[in-house]
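About this split. The held-out portion is used to measure sequence recovery: a designer receives only the structure tokens and must propose an amino acid at every position. Recovery is the fraction of positions where the proposal matches the reference. Here is one held-out target exactly as it appears in the evaluation file.
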């Protein structure tokens, strides 16, 4: 699907998908490390916890405000309803995999051997889901939802992410080029944009989210609602 939708502004949707793909690659590389126990890195670095938190917020927002609304609008259209069921089933399959990875992080016996396979599976499944959603579901979303219904999704997701705004926005823009970052920041309320440029960006860089032992606590809270 082109990011230039006919009806709905999906800039932020594609931005979080790209950020999730980026972090999946980092997670897989971390699990493959031989210079340090990857269980220690994943279990103590901020990056793993942020990935899980932001993924959960994104998927829960879709499950609450997109798929049910579309199911009602598309009643009787069997192929479209199957696609919506696939989206929900693919979401449901991710949480148990994350739990398996967390279990491997504390398993001294077989954890190291299991971790690499589990993170590879996570990358494969979640990447496939994101591709499936962008290819098939988002064009249907664009054709089905009104701007007001799409805004309901944005508000739900923003509310879930607001307590972690100081980390979420720099995370979203991590390694983004200047043009992409400018496009995303143009969608952000001015107080958050100013906070990002004056404080959050540098604090995030200094944090080193894939450095073992970095703390998750202490993020500032700013709501854009």
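Reference sequence for scoring:
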């Amino acid at each position: 699907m082109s990011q230039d939708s006919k009806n709905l502004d999906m800039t932020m949707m594609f931005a979080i998908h790209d950020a999730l793909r980026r972090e999946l690659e980092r997670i897989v590389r971390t699990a493959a490390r031989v210079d340090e126990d990857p269980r220690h890195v994943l279990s103590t670095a901020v990056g793993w916890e942020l990935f899980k938190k932001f993924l959960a917020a994104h998927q829960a927002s879709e499950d609450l405000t997109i798929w049910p609304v579309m199911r009602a609008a598309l009643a009787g259209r069997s192929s479209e309803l199957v696609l919506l069921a696939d989206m929900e089933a693919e979401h449901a399959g991710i949480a148990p995999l994350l739990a398996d990875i967390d279990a491997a992080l504390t398993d001294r016996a077989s954890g190291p051997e299991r971790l690499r396979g589990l993170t590879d599976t996570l990358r494969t499944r979640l990447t496939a889901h994101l591709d499936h959603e962008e290819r098939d579901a988002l064009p249907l979303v664009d054709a089905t939802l009104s701007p007001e219904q799409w805004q309901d999704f944005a508000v739900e997701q923003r509310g879930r992410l607001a307590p972690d705004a100081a980390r979420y926005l720099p995370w979203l823009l991590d390694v983004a080029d200047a043009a992409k970052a400018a496009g995303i920041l143009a969608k952000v309320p001015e107080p958050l944009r100013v906070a990002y440029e004056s404080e959050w960006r540098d604090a995030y860089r200094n944090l080193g989210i894939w450095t073992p032992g970095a703390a998750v606590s202490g993020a500032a809270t700013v709501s854009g609602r």
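Annotator remark: The chain has a mean pLDDT of 91.
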